[in-house]
Amino acid sequence: MKSSAWIWRITASVSVIVTIVLILGFVYAFKDINNPQGEPLLSGGEPEISDEEAAPAKPDQGPSLPALPKDLRVTAIGDSLAKGTGDNSGSGFVRRSVDQMNGDGRTAKLLANLAINGMTTEGLLPKLDDKGIQYALKQANVIMLSIGGNDIFQGSDLMEEATSPDELELDPAKLMGALPMASERLQAILEKIRLINPEARIVYVGLYHPFSDLEELLIPGNIVVSAWNQAAMEIVNRDPNMTLVPTFDLFQHKLGEYLSSDHFHPNGAGYQAIADRIVQGML
What we know:
The structure is a single chain. The protein is of the alpha/beta class. 50% of the residues lie in helices and 10% in strands. It has 13 helices and 5 strands. It has helices at residues 2-34, 80-83, 92-101, 121-127, 131-138, 149-154, 158-161, 172-177, 179-196, 215-236, 248-252, 255-258, 268-282, and strands at 71-78, 107-113, 142-146, 201-205, 242-245.
């Protein structure tokens, strides 16, 4: 009996140590992603922004992206964020960005918004073989993409199992389990879009944490969303005409101001904040 007790104690101690190491690793990764040292803003990293600062730094702090033409032809694709769900005006960040890029001798036109509510990386990848979608992507010189939120939150059955935000439970291990395959599909999506259109500027919109105002969901959600953004940033950095637009910091302390009534999608103000960031990085 004494031998069994010692074995149990040793096993428990090892489990605690492993858990602490994993947590420290997640925290370190989270801090590194949200406050990178020496990372250019266009690569997806951002300096920490205090609440007192009126506006974020312009996201062009690293090597310059290829110059954009004066006539911008935009095609959007992806999920409900690209579609603009939650915006009472129906504009979303796509239309708002296009409208803002008009002027100063530049014209911008939205050719097509191909986004679909509930779209995941698994659903989007085969759609890129559709001839109509390929045609719309080929005609653009700017392609905006939002994808991944449904892979994390709905793909883990998180949204389906809860009837209200107060009932949500985020299990980091369960959510992290979906990341490897989803990030591989994101890479395949971006590579396929690049094959379809070798010249267009591809703008990928990073994820924010829509439940960070709920204390019990703050840390696990931050860990998973930050891990996704880090994986996306590493993929985007391989292409000199591709950029990741970070949104994590935009929503971090402004969920009440920027989220729609469903507590998941942005409202008009939230979409405007994303559009402002996109335009800052584009022009």
